[in-house]
Amino acid sequence: MDEEKRVAVLPWLRHPVDLTRGEQLCVRMVPFMDRRLKSVLENMEISNLFPVQVALWHETVGPGNFERDLCINSPTGSGKTLAYALPIVQKLLPSSTIKCLRALVVVPTRDLALQVKQVFDALTLPLGLRVGLAVGQSSVVDEISSLVHVPGEEEGPNPGFFSPFWFQSKVDILVATPGRLVDHVNMSRGFTLKHLRYLVVDEADRLLREDYQSWLPTVLKSTQSNNDDVTGDDDVFQLGGVERGSNPHHRLAKVVLSATLTRDPGRLVLLNLHHPLFLSAGQMRYRLPENLEAYKLICERKVKPLYLVALLKSLGEEKCVVFTKSVESTHRLCKLLNCFEDLQIDIKEYSGLQHQRVRSKTLNEFRKGEFQVLVSSDAMTRGMDVEGVRNVINYDMPKYIKTYVHRAGRTARAGQTGRCFTLMSNDEVGRFKKLMKKAEASACLEHTIPSCLIEALHSTYQSALSKLKEIILETRKKPKDKSCQ
Ligand SMILES: Nc1ncnc2c1ncn2[C@@H]1O[C@H](COP(=O)(O)OP(=O)(O)OP(=O)(O)O)[C@@H](O)[C@H]1O
């Protein structure tokens, strides 16, 4: 059922703290912030905290002191990652020498996990805290040895002897995707969430929508022993000297975020939130970035590729993400664009159809500016932060406003300007108008392309189509590439 049609609203969602009234705050003025953290931020060239970061700081380190669980609905690119990373790092700073896993961040995709880890690394490396990654990039065994001291490694001069470090955590903070997290909870000896004090659920609506091996009940169950069992067998190697904060029965504090946070009581209740506080930018669930310019580009279906090519040409060297409706369309469109002979633009594909290694490589190259246009399907782009993306193009109009918000949000991030073009046929205009009404700040202008430019592209289009046909026939003759399963 469409979530927006539901009428029941949880009482605490009715009175949000309005983030749009908040101001930026100079880092030097942030109350209670450890001076080492201030200096790390200075080195990262961050001189002001964004409103969502100020508000979260207030509720976590400031007077709020993590006493309530927090749900945040704040636009794409508004700085949610740093908003939760800063208070966690500050709270974990007065750390003992013996490590244990005290903060867990769950995100839906590997590339996003890598991105979030990089933010934590930048903050924590100079401060002596360690951040781990559990995303299934390597085998469970290899991954666990990067997270926990396991017997067999670092044996020293007396191999076979008991080491006090066995099964001790190597990391203070873990960034994980849900499936691999559950693997570790269920299978990896020494991996424990018993000392967890902070749980962040980023891109929460996506993580709550899909079951991912029942990751949420598994995590909550594994952390419950935090409250009622501090002397269980598993703790035998970890208790001595481990800092659990002033209160050994510390409550697990939760921070739940999205640019399109679900209001569905059935889903939110799964989080078992403690006296939740809702922080939201504006009244509506969907809000577009302040400096986004939205355009519709009306054209007939059969000449859509021509309009896309003309548009890409007019955008010149600017970095651009093109969204299609499916992994198959992404693949086909990318191939077709690469068949246009005089289109001097480097274009690559990014979709769930590809192997993770290929996808991560493509993303890195895009980040470095090695090519300009990324053709993508939806699933993988949640939260993706690539500097310099000036344009988003919806080659296929999204079905839901939520999809539009996340796609458009790959540009106009951190207060920068950006444009989102949506290609549509005449019969889609009404539906698009309805869709956009669901979002705040969603004014949309029409963008036109002179018909002479389209006509001039017709013959190159025909040869591109023939070339594509040949490629398809060739690929059918070859055995299937197993790396793309
Ligand atoms: N205080 C700040 N000053 C300058 N830049 C910042 C600040 N906070 C965050 N940024 C930058 O803003 C960009 C967007 O931040 P982030 O990825 O956390 O956004 P987000 O709200 O999580 O977006 P999404 O909903 O798309 O995941 C990043 O490039 C980040 O480095």
From TrEMBL:
<keyword id="KW-0547">Nucleotide-binding</keyword>
<comment type="function">
    <text>RNA helicase.</text>
</comment>
<dbReference type="GO" id="GO:0003723">
    <property type="term" value="F:RNA binding"/>
</dbReference>
<dbReference type="InterPro" id="IPR011545">
    <property type="entry name" value="DEAD/DEAH_box_helicase_dom"/>
</dbReference>
<dbReference type="InterPro" id="IPR014001">
    <property type="entry name" value="Helicase_ATP-bd"/>
</dbReference>
<dbReference type="InterPro" id="IPR027417">
    <property type="entry name" value="P-loop_NTPase"/>
</dbReference>
<dbReference type="GO" id="GO:0016787">
    <property type="term" value="F:hydrolase activity"/>
</dbReference>
<dbReference type="InterPro" id="IPR000629">
    <property type="entry name" value="RNA-helicase_DEAD-box_CS"/>
</dbReference>
<dbReference type="GO" id="GO:0005524">
    <property type="term" value="F:ATP binding"/>
</dbReference>
<feature type="domain" description="Helicase C-terminal">
    <location>
        <begin position="307"/>
        <end position="457"/>
    </location>
</feature>
<comment type="similarity">
    <text>Belongs to the DEAD box helicase family.</text>
</comment>
<keyword id="KW-0067">ATP-binding</keyword>
<keyword id="KW-0347">Helicase</keyword>
<dbReference type="GO" id="GO:0003724">
    <property type="term" value="F:RNA helicase activity"/>
</dbReference>
<dbReference type="InterPro" id="IPR001650">
    <property type="entry name" value="Helicase_C-like"/>
</dbReference>
<keyword id="KW-0694">RNA-binding</keyword>
<dbReference type="Pfam" id="PF00270">
    <property type="entry name" value="DEAD"/>
</dbReference>
<feature type="domain" description="Helicase ATP-binding">
    <location>
        <begin position="61"/>
        <end position="279"/>
    </location>
</feature>
<dbReference type="Pfam" id="PF00271">
    <property type="entry name" value="Helicase_C"/>
</dbReference>
<protein>
    <recommendedName>
        <fullName>ATP-dependent RNA helicase</fullName>
        <ecNumber>3.6.4.13</ecNumber>
    </recommendedName>
</protein>
<keyword id="KW-0378">Hydrolase</keyword>
